[in-house]
Amino acid sequence: MSGTPALPASLIVAGGYLAWFGIHYWRTDVAWPSDPVKAVLTGRPIPTAGPDKMREMPLGPLHPITVAPTPTSNAIGTASGGLLSGARVMSQQDIRTLWTSAGGNPAVANTAAAIAMAESSGRTDALSQNPDGGTNVGLWQLDTRGVGAGYSVEQLRDPATNARVAVMGSLNGANWSPWQTYVEGTYRKFL
Fold it and tell me: How far apart are CA 11 and CA 113, in angstroms?
C-alpha cells in the first residue's frame, strides 16, 4: 500500500481552498455575487451597483474626453515644484466637465469636483501614501488598494481613467464614504 489516503488529502486541500477563499472574500476589494450579504454582515450600506461592474469596464474612456487648458488650468513643470513634467492643474469647472464626460451624474458634479479639489487641489499627478499601504493617485486620490484597486498608478494618473474609476467607486456619486475629505466635510469649502 503506497501513497496518501485520498479522503484526508482531499479534506486538507478543500480546507486550504476554503481558508484562501475566506481571506480573499473578507479582506480584499474583489467583487463577489454575495457582496450585499457581506455588506449587511459587516454593517456597511448595501451596494446599489455591483463593484463587479468596475472590473468589467474597459480601460479606455466611456466617452471621448477632451479637456482644453483654460486660464485656470495650466501645465506644471519640474523646475521648482518637483512635479512630473506635463502634470496639470485643472479648474473646478474642468473637473465638473470631466466627471460628466466620464458618465458621472450631472446632479452631483459640483460635489464630485469639490471632493477632487479637496483631495488633490486639481492636480492630475497628485500622489500620497495611504495608511493601508496603497498609493492615493490623481484628482480624486484613488487608493490603489481601495477604490483604485486593479489599476496601476500610471493608469490612475490619467484624468479620464481617474474620473471613470471615481464614478464607479462612488456608485455614481451615491456613496462618497471612501473619501476622507467627504467624511470630514473639508470638501464643503469648494462648493
Answer: 53
Nearest in space to 95 (alpha carbons), one of 154, 169, 179, 162: 162
Residue listed under C-alpha cell 472590473: 55
Give the Cβ contact number of residue 59 at 10 Å: 13
Distance separating alpha carbons of residues 17 and 81, to the nearest angstrom: 49
| Residue 138 CB partners (closer than 8 Å, separation 6+) | 120, 124, 125, 126, 156, 157, 158, 159, 162
* Rounded to 5°, angle at Cα 14 from 9 and 38: 165
Rounded Cα distance between 102 and 159, Å, is 10
- Cα dist. 183→165, 177, 180 in Å? 19, 6, 5
Half-sphere exposure of 69 (CA within 13 A, CB side): 10
Give per-residue pLDDT as tens, 53-88.
443 333 343 444 444 443 343 333 333 333 333 568
pTM of the model: 0.57
Place of cell 487648458: 69
How far is residue 175's CA from residue 47's CA, in Å, rounded to a whole number?
9
